[in-house]
Design brief:
The protein contains 5 helices and 9 strands; from the N terminus they run H-E-E-E-E-H-E-E-H-H-H-E-E-E. It has 198 residues and is an alpha+beta fold. The longest helix is centred in the N-terminal third of the chain and has 15 residues. It is elongated and about 55 Å long. The protein binds flavin mononucleotide.
Length: 198
């Protein structure tokens, strides 16, 4: 049985995320991110949650990737976490906005040098002839920045999803799960809490 212990969904998420960090074998911050094109056709993939607070949920990617282009045309997304060991799911939806350049720079510089090189070398989601072509691109970027800092590429940044719906789901016996949804009409408005049928 699960009942939220707080009226603040960010606090509830923080509690569950800490449980997931303790329980999951890897990537407790892995989440499905669903976006849609301008005709409303959806696509989904796993990304890593890199930051969250009461301003929203942050992920980083190539802004010219498939998802980046979709977010450019249709800046709404849905996130879904499934923490298998805990038998819990969290679903989050809302509008998506770019993080600031300072925020993206700070996170980019915290990444391993190889990942920073890779961000320059990968034209994420575009056709690639073969692995050798990618490794040649990596070698070219390595040479370009040899002995120096690797700056953040202009096509690599983060997005913050500002939620208006956050649903907490906990597995129950005989599929009689507990579901609670926090909703608000827009950012800054007070949250309402509602239990849902499983
Ligand atoms: C566990 C896991 C974590 C991932 N984390 C990221 C990430 O943080 N950012 C990213 O751009 N892609 C990440 N990926 C790769 C994406 O799932 C996806 O392949 C890539 O972003 C291209 O997606 P798109 O073509 O829909 O834009 C991750 C994949 C997995 C399986």
């Amino acid at each position: 049985m699960f009942e939220p212990t707080t009226q603040d969904p960010f606090e509830q998420f923080r509690l569950w995320f800490a449980d997931a960090e303790a329980a999951e074998v890897n990537d407790p911050n892995a989440m499905t991110v669903a976006t849609a094109d301008s005709d409303g056709r959806p696509s989904a993939r796993i990304l890593l949650l890199k930051d969250f607070d009461d301003q929203g949920f942050v992920f980083y990617t190539n802004t010219q990737s498939h998802k980046g282009r979709e977010l450019d045309h249709n800046p709404f997304a849905a996130l879904c976490f499934h923490w298998k060991s805990l038998r819990r799911q969290v679903r989050i939806t809302g509008a998506v906005q770019p993080v600031t350049a300072e925020e993206a720079d700070a996170y980019f510089q915290s990444r391993a040098r190889g990942s920073r090189i890779g961000a320059w070398a990968s034209q994420q989601s575009r056709p690639l002839a073969d692995r050798d072509t990618l490794m040649a691109d990596v070698a070219r970027v390595e040479k370009q920045y040899e002995g120096g800092e690797v700056p953040r590429p202009p096509h690599w940044s983060g997005f913050r999803l500002v939620p208006t719906r956050i649903e907490f789901w906990h597995d129950g016996e005989f599929r009689l799960h507990d579901r609670f949804i926090f909703t608000r009409p827009q950012n800054g408005a007070p949250w309402s809490l509602q239990r849902l049928y499983p």
